[in-house]
TrEMBL record, chain A:
<feature type="domain" description="ABC transmembrane type-1">
    <location>
        <begin position="17"/>
        <end position="302"/>
    </location>
</feature>
<dbReference type="Pfam" id="PF00664">
    <property type="entry name" value="ABC_membrane"/>
</dbReference>
<dbReference type="InterPro" id="IPR003593">
    <property type="entry name" value="AAA+_ATPase"/>
</dbReference>
<dbReference type="GO" id="GO:0005886">
    <property type="term" value="C:plasma membrane"/>
</dbReference>
<keyword id="KW-0813">Transport</keyword>
<dbReference type="GO" id="GO:0034040">
    <property type="term" value="F:ATPase-coupled lipid transmembrane transporter activity"/>
</dbReference>
<dbReference type="InterPro" id="IPR017871">
    <property type="entry name" value="ABC_transporter-like_CS"/>
</dbReference>
<feature type="domain" description="ABC transporter">
    <location>
        <begin position="333"/>
        <end position="566"/>
    </location>
</feature>
<keyword id="KW-1133">Transmembrane helix</keyword>
Automatic annotation (TrEMBL), chain B:
<feature type="domain" description="ABC transmembrane type-1">
    <location>
        <begin position="21"/>
        <end position="299"/>
    </location>
</feature>
<feature type="transmembrane region" description="Helical">
    <location>
        <begin position="237"/>
        <end position="264"/>
    </location>
</feature>
<dbReference type="GO" id="GO:0016887">
    <property type="term" value="F:ATP hydrolysis activity"/>
</dbReference>
<dbReference type="InterPro" id="IPR027417">
    <property type="entry name" value="P-loop_NTPase"/>
</dbReference>
<dbReference type="InterPro" id="IPR003593">
    <property type="entry name" value="AAA+_ATPase"/>
</dbReference>
<keyword id="KW-0472">Membrane</keyword>
<dbReference type="GO" id="GO:0005524">
    <property type="term" value="F:ATP binding"/>
</dbReference>
<keyword id="KW-0813">Transport</keyword>
<keyword id="KW-0997">Cell inner membrane</keyword>
Length: 572, 570
């Protein structure tokens, strides 16, 4: 997708903005030409033609009026268009993010993505509302002026261009390898300063608790020193050139060039004095493109980089949806020789074969880094396995269709997110049309009903506005959410349960209440949960090291038994 | 604007800023005045003796040369002042941030601060380097030109002067009108940003509800609101832009008509009227650019206001005559602590004799972590006192207080460096042998053996390359190395897998030995061996005693204990 494709729906308004801007800018020449014609009429020998003078003045005023109307309209339309474009960009981003594989998010920082939808979209603003019109105007007006001036006197036109030529001659000096290196160093130092600020601020508690605040601020100050040094170096190199360029392009300097050239041509070259006027008036405008280039260029570069990042998000490929979704039979879950890695060459799961029978609880245990979290994330299809398949009710998840999948699988993971919406809406998130009674029933089961009634507006309390909930309470809401969804397959990370004993109890109660036919997979952290499970799977290094009932495994005196004993010794 | 800038930076930076502003103003006046010399030049050229032009032209040339030198010097001065101020700003910010109470650093603030410190500072300081010169020149040069016009023809001069109050009034009025809308748009933007983050983080849940095919209403509403607010801002800005353009162009038209009239009537010489019209045309563009420059100045100003707010947050006061505690018993004496209008700690009195262990238990949100943070003086109490060794923590120098306390947090932040560097943070002058001993005691050596690169392995930003339990071990090693007499443990064993939990427990036991300990925990097994247990609910101590006493008492603690011990099947 190219930049223009993103903008295509708005092309007509966009063109209108640019055209209006150009018309306005060209109309702005009328008053200047009016002064020129006035001068010619007044300087002409013989009696002054009053009618001609007043016509010229009227034309100049009319030109000003057209300029006013066109630029105002262009600016208004441009900004409104810009708002519309931003809204549609943000909507499309939201849509794309809503389709991106969940796994894709885990490798990106939320802050970065939020920045794309926020600041980056805003950065497109000058691209749409200002720069194109201004840039076009900055080139069209001088071009028209230039053609006109050539017809008046080509020699003086060339002289008028001397300041521009001087300024342009300085440009290569700004692009020397030394200058470019300084620029690069400056960018790098700028990045370091941002990083060190972030690190300084994030680690402030540690820094203070360990009396290392001097050390950390030293690091920060070192980055600052580094930054200012490279900034000084860059400025020292560029500032004289920039200032020199400004002087060359400044109106007094241009006027001096025009007057000197004009005086020489009038005294020796036979140029009519009145012909000097257009150069005095229009000559100043010839410097506009060079100035505009420097000015509009930065914004355009920023906007271009922003559009690039937006496009990166928009082109994220969603997990493929099946062309012909297959209906599952039952809800037996099978992992068949599943292999998966986040980066190529480093497998996290290395050939897992596992069957989760309906009506059973399977507990996964294992040290950190064994692949437990990855394993459970394959069930709600946050990722697709690199090899092998995850099969639900006899159907590969990839042939199931995401709608059907989420009707079958619900999950409670460590990272609980509540929305800034009412408590009831939060619980009913997966079942938008659930009745109030069902919501309350789920809340009771999750051990959170009483707490909700204590909130200022009960189930209508808006989380985050009317009240905040503690971590444990939020987790119990998440459990209620999963209970209400009432899916036949439930995936649960028991680390959730560690906020407080009430939450811990809620999880165990939920596991015990979910009767009958459900397929439950839980990452177990408590011996009690493991003891209650029908099957225990010990993961180690991405493979199943042991599996069986808890009693079998303890009796085996293998790795599982050793694993739990170390824990018991330390804790009890 | 300048006043605000100087307020943020401190008075010591006033001279260079004032000098730069004065230089830029002089340059702008010089530009305007140099145009006065155009009149004799044009008079000669348009008169009967064009050959007489050279002398006036040389005069104009000299004026231009003076202007060029001034312009060059003031541009460089602007760059230099901007850079110096930038460094000063960063130093001030860094110094101040290090002194702010930790309680000030909420998650929200950390995010805002990162943006403020990187982009915000640059934008605010860019004022001097980039915006000031065009702004001053856009205001001062036209005014000087008007003065020149007045000198040559009072009618035309007065007509031009009439523009000045109108332009100024429009600027002020637009600025006020926009401030309201800018603020509203900023608020909507903030709101939308929050919704985007929520939307991103809630993706798994939203998808489970099949909520991604339809537009997610909460997000879409806030995006639409943002667009509406933006539109209101644009529509409210438009009258100002149009009015400014109208005023400037109306004055130009008046000058054109009046000039034509005066010239036709023979009241003014042709060279004079033409010069004045040339200069009028010259003034129009900078005036029109004012609306653009003011918009940018408003943006920079908003950043300055935010910086000012941060820099004016008072740090915790340091005692004038610090006292050094000579023992390490701890005491909370009728402590009250409020956060906003919410009372987090409500009249808590507890004491811990030296070398004993206090456990704090209670539902989440009861204020347990806050108690620990008050001990380490992350905040100051609103009433009562927190004492270490009988000395109020507010009377102890913060360096001294921190040297007595080892704090193991629930969430561990590691700096991007090697494991060794992170452990050494505990005590800067520790010997290699001491570091090894701490590492072994925290069972961090197992982790180091496993890592590619071992000791020299980098832990990544925030310690991202280590698991939660591994990070916890680093922080315990750090605390062991620090060897402080008071140990504070905040839910250290939450959410660990059994292997890490075992290792962490072993480390914690070694850390606690012979020290005064306050621990917050909900895993009651780790609590039962504490010398004293308090049950905290809603900021109040509702029960206290030893494990056995509390069980006999049969209150909330006992409920908790039974709840966590009974299997769910019952």
């Amino acid at each position: 997708m190219s930049d223009t494709a993103l903008l295509r729906p708005h092309l007509r308004s966009f063109t209108t903005v640019v055209v209006l801007q150009v018309i306005g800018a060209v109309a702005g020449l009328a008053p200047l030409l009016a002064v020129v014609e006035l001068g010619r009429a007044l300087l002409a020998s013989g009696p002054v033609d009053h009618g001609h003078v007043w016509f010229v003045v009227t034309a100049g005023a009319a030109g000003l009026f057209v300029r006013l109307v066109c630029t105002a309209a262009s600016s208004g339309i441009g900004h409104l268009l810009d708002d519309r474009v931003q809204l549609s960009f943000r909507r499309r981003l939201a849509e794309a993010l809503g389709r991106a594989p969940i796994g894709w998010f885990s490798r990106r920082r939320t802050g970065e993505l939020a920045k794309v939808a926020g600041e980056d979209v805003s950065a497109v603003h000058p691209f749409i509302a200002h720069t194109p019109g201004e840039l076009v105007a900055a080139f069209v007006v001088p071009l028209v002026s230039l053609v006109y001036l050539f017809t008046v006197d080509w020699r003086l036109t060339l002289i008028t261009l001397i300041p521009v030529a001087l300024a342009v001659a300085l440009v290569p000096l700004m692009m020397t390898p030394a200058r470019l290196r300084e620029q690069k160093e400056f960018d790098a130092a700028m990045g370091r300063i941002a990083d060190s600020v972030v690190e300084f601020v994030h680690g402030i508690a540690v820094v203070k608790a360990f009396g290392g605040s001097e050390r950390a601020s030293r690091r920060f100050l070192a980055a600052v020193a580094d930054f200012t040094t490279s900034f000084f170096r860059m400025v020292r190199g560029l500032a004289p050139l920039g200032a020199g360029m400004q002087v060359a392009l400044s109106p007094p300097f241009v006027l001096l060039a025009v007057l000197t050239g004009g005086a020489a041509l009038i005294t020796n070259g036979g140029m009519a004095p009145a012909d000097l006027l257009p150069f005095l008036l229009l000559g100043l405008g010839l410097t506009a493109p060079v100035a505009a280039l420097g000015h509009g260029f930065d914004d355009t570069q920023t906007a271009r980089r922003a559009v690039g990042r937006i496009r990166d998000v928009l082109t994220v490929r969603p997990l493929p949806e099946p062309a012909h979704p297959v209906a599952p039979q039952g809800h037996r879950v099978e992992l068949r020789d599943v292999r998966f890695g986040y980066v190529t060459g480093h497998e996290v799961l290395r050939g897992i074969d596992l069957v989760l029978e309906p009506g059973t609880v399977t507990a996964v245990v294992g040290p950190s880094g064994s692949g437990k979290s990855t394993l459970v994330q394959l069930l709600p299809r946050f990722f697709d396995p690199a090899h092998g398949s995850v099969v639900l009710g006899g159907v590969d998840l990839r042939d199931l269709g995401s709608q059907a999948l989420y009707r079958l699988v619900s999950f409670v993971f460590q990272d609980v997110r509540l929305l800034r919406a009412s408590v009831a809406d939060n619980i009913a998130l997966a079942v938008p049309h659930a009745g109030h009674d069902d919501v309350v029933r789920a809340a009771r089961l999750a051990n959170i009903h009483d707490r909700i009634l204590e909130l200022p507006r009960g189930y209508d309390t808006v989380i985050g506005e009317d009240t905040g909930l503690s971590g444990g309470e939020a987790q119990r809401i998440a459990i209620a959410r999963a209970l209400l969804a009432d899916t036949p397959v439930l995936v649960l990370d028991e680390a959730t349960a560690f906020a407080d004993p009430q939450t811990e109890h809620a999880v165990r109660q939920a596991l015990a209440t979910l009767d009958g036919d459900r397929t439950i997979l839980v990452i177990a952290h408590r011996l009690e949960t493991v003891a209650d499970a029908d099957t225990v799977v010990l993961l180690e290094n991405g493979t199943v090291a042991e599996r069986g009932t808890p009693t079998e495994l303890l009796a085996q005196q293998g790795k599982f038994a050793a694993f739990w004993q170390t824990r018991e010794e330390e804790v009890r | 604007m300048i006043r605000l800038l100087l307020k943020v930076l401190g008075p010591e930076h006033a001279p260079p800023v004032r000098r730069t502003v004065a230089l830029m103003t002089t340059t702008a006046i010089a530009e305007g005045l140099s145009y006065a010399l155009l009149v004799p030049v044009l008079r000669a050229l348009f008169g009967s003796e064009p050959g007489d032009v050279w002398l006036p032209l040389a005069g104009f040339g000299a004026a231009v040369a003076i202007y060029a030198v001034l312009r060059y010097v003031s541009d460089l001065s602007g760059f230099r002042a901007g850079t110096t101020l930038l460094r000063a700003m960063y130093h001030r910010l860094g110094d101040h941030l290090a002194r702010l109470p930790i309680g000030w650093y909420s998650a929200d603030r950390v995010g805002q601060l990162s943006v403020l410190a990187s982009n915000g500072v640059l934008q605010a300081m860019g004022v001097i380097a980039h915006l000031l010169a065009p702004f001053i020149s856009a205001c001062v040069t036209p005014l000087t030109i008007v003065a020149v016009m007045l000198a040559f023809n009072w009618q035309l001069g007065l007509a031009a002067l009439a523009a000045a109050p109108v332009v100024a009034a429009i600027q002020v009025w637009t600025g006020r009108a926009m401030a309201v809308h800018d603020a509203e748009r900023a608020e909507r933007r903030h709101e939308a940003a929050g919704r985007v983050i929520e939307y991103l983080q809630a993706q798994p849940v939203l998808r489970a509800g099949g909520r991604t095919t339809e537009r997610f209403r909460l997000l879409d509403d806030s995006l639409t609101e943002l667009q509406r607010a933006s539109r209101r801002t644009v529509l409210s800005a438009l009258p100002g832009v149009v009015a400014l353009a109208l005023a400037v162009q109306a004055v130009f038209t008046v000058l054109l008509v009046l000039g034509a009239y005066l010239a036709l009537g023979g009241h003014i010489g042709v060279p004079e009227v033409l010069t004045i019209l040339v200069l009028a045309a010259r003034s129009a563009d900078p005036l029109l650019s004012l609306s653009d420059i003011s918009g940018k100045l408003r943006g920079a100003r908003a950043e300055l206001v935010r910086l000012d707010a941060v820099l004016h947050t008072p740090p915790l006061p340091e005692p004038p005559d610090p006292v050094e505690p000579d023992r390490h018993d701890l005491e909370f004496d009728s402590v009250v602590f409020r956060h906003g209008d919410h009372t987090v700690i409500d009249d808590v009195s507890v004491s811990v004799p030296e070398g004993r262990r206090l456990a704090v238990v209670g539902p989440s949100g009861a204020g347990k972590s806050t108690l620990l943070q008050l001990l380490a003086r992350f905040y100051d109490v609103d009433a009562g006192a927190v004492r270490v060794g009988g000395v109020d923590v507010r009377a102890v120098a913060s360096e001294v207080l921190m040297s007595r306390i080892a704090f193991v947090f629930q969430a561990v932040h590691l700096f991007d460096g090697t494991i060794e560097e992170n452990v050494r943070l505990g005590r800067a002058g520790a010997t290699d042998a001491e570091v090894r001993a701490a590492v072994t005691a925290a069972r961090l050596d197992e982790v180091i053996d496993r890592l590619p690169g071992g000791w020299a392995a980098h832990v990544g930003e925030g310690g991202a390359l280590l698991s939660g339990g591994e990070r916890q071990r680093v922080s315990i090693a750090r605390a062991l190395l620090k060897d402080a007499p008071v140990v504070l443990l905040d839910e250290v064993t939450s959410a660990l897998d059994p292997v890490n939990e075992a290792a962490v427990h072993a480390g914690i036991e070694r850390l606690m030995a012979g020290r005064t300990v306050v621990m917050v925990a909900h895993r009651l097994r780790t609590v039962r061996r504490a010398d004293h247990i308090v049950f905290l609910d809603n900021g109040r101590v509702t029960e206290q005693g030893t494990h056995e006493e509390l069980l006999r008492h049969g209150g909330r603690y006992a409920d908790y204990w039974h709840l966590s011990m009974t299997p769910a099947a019952d």
